[in-house]
């Protein structure tokens, strides 16, 4: 005689999908999609690569591109030579205008001060490393080669 499985063994608990992972609300947004919607990245693929490579931190920790963004979370995003630290103020999964995208986050005062300090340091370093007026002539090139081989 065969044993019959009880009816409860095949049922998943409420709020779980087939894979056993919890389902998310319709208004939940992944971090890669939020970065794209907030205009930190030009494409979602670039946003996904930034998160996967560890250049984006969510609440001071590395995360996966599928991480769900929550309000008042702290996200660190690379911006050129600097790192922006922003606080999430709104969550939206659609890319809107730049004016609306700026309303999704607020940059911390520490981040602003650090970026301004780094910009000033970069400007000063340009003045300390002057560029020559033109290309070196034949005599100057010979002197450079001779200097390098000493």
From TrEMBL:
Pfam families: S4 (PF01479). Residues 1-16 have a biased composition (Polar residues). It comes from Glaciecola nitratireducens (strain JCM 12485 / KCTC 12276 / FR1064). This is Heat shock protein 15. Residues 1-25, 127-150 are annotated as: Disordered. Residues 138-150 have a biased composition (Basic residues). Belongs to the HSP15 family. Residues 29-92 form the RNA-binding S4 domain. The gene is hslR. Keywords: DNA-binding, RNA-binding. GO terms for molecular function: DNA binding; ribosomal large subunit binding; single-stranded RNA binding. SUPFAM superfamilies: Alpha-L RNA-binding motif (SSF55174). GO terms for biological process: cellular response to heat.
